[in-house]
Amino acid sequence: MLVLNSIADVRRWVNERRMRGQKIGFVPTMGYLHDGHLSLARAAGAENDAVIMSIFVNPLQFGPSEDFATYPKDLERDCALAESAGVDAIFTPPVSEMYPYYPQLTTVEVSRITTGLCGASRPGHFTGVTTVVMKLFNIVQADAAYFGQKDYQQVQVIKRMAADLNMPVQIKTVPIRREKDGLAMSSRNTYLSPDERRQALCLSQSLKLCEGLYEQGERSSAQLQKAIEKRITMEPSAVIDYVEVCDQETLQTVEVIDKPSVVVIAVKIGKTRLIDNIELGGVQTCSEL
Fold it and tell me: Which of 48, 271, 276, 279 is the most buried (most CB within 10 A)?
């Protein structure tokens, strides 16, 4: 497996594979890999001839009080895991390579679906996400890019960006990977103390409770939200950012679930902000645009 640090090296690697007629799958990450990331790599490997993964902690998507400086990093470990999942090359550029002129004057912004949910509590976050993803797409020029469903709003934002700008890349979504006890895999889980790790199970457990109520016939968003909030607030260190029931595509809130919807939650456990979601009605385990 190759480790590439420059845009020029990535473009040479891509051109060599294009000359062989190979399809390229791309997995963008911020590193500190877990099995959720590796499931993206495996999905890319099953559908393409070559797989490239990026590992880049993007400063543009972190707010001034967020964890950019302390975001977990272990490149040697990441490389070993990526290679075990079939990744052919890793692109891990320094910030100066991705942003030679910083602050960057040109950004990419998707409106409407970025204003609520994580966009409301993390101003500027999605502009940072779409800008870096656009840059990565332009650098790699992959046939398909793979994202995890855990970051539900992010996936919808990237799908819309790619569609609106006629980008020649398929955006594919891979289902959430969970620990045995149900916690959604996340690099930020490493921030949790043992007691906080136990309390964090309230996210997946509240969504499971919501799913059960839905299967029993409950369609009122307010009632489902109430049940979720009741379970989460049982934990002493849990602080709810949001609990919303939304249309799967537009992310507009819905009062009654009468079409494919998604329940999205964000909760702080101690100092660690975690997100999770579950689709209700017309559930799709893998999708593409």
Answer: 276
Residue 111, pLDDT > 80, answer yes
Encoding tokens for residue 182? 């149900």
Question: 237 with 219: CB under 8 angstroms?
Answer: no
Instruction: Say which residue, 281 or 278, is predicted with more confidence.
Output: 278
End-to-end CA gap in the chain: 29
The arithmetic mean of pLDDT across residues 26-33, rounded, is: 98
Single pTM value for the model: 0.95
| Residue at 153: amino acid letter | Q
pLDDT of residue 109 exceeding 50, the answer is: yes
Which ranges of 141-268 would DSSP assign to H, the alpha helix?
Answer: 152-164, 194-199, 201-215, 221-232
Q: Does residue 37 carry a catalytic annotation? A: yes
The number of residues making up the chain comes to 289
CATH architecture of 2-174: 3-Layer(aba) Sandwich (3.40)
CATH number for the segment(s) 187-278: 3.30.1300.10
Residue in 7, 25, 28, 37 annotated catalytic: 37
The predicted pLDDT at position 102 comes to 82
